[in-house]
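Quick one: structure tokens for this chain, please?
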Amino acid sequence: MEEWKIKIAEKALEKGIINDPQWMHKLDELVPLWVVLELALQLANKLESEYSSYD
């Protein structure tokens, strides 16, 4: 497996994006669209909560 994929997975584990170390062995598997959407929504919520309006 490519080293760059392993580094990405390690960072995701550290950040709590993934919480199952078994994903380290499944980095080339496809994921359902709902998984990608859930991650995008979590990121959007996090970004929205970090910024507030100056108005």
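Helices lie at 3-15, 33-50.
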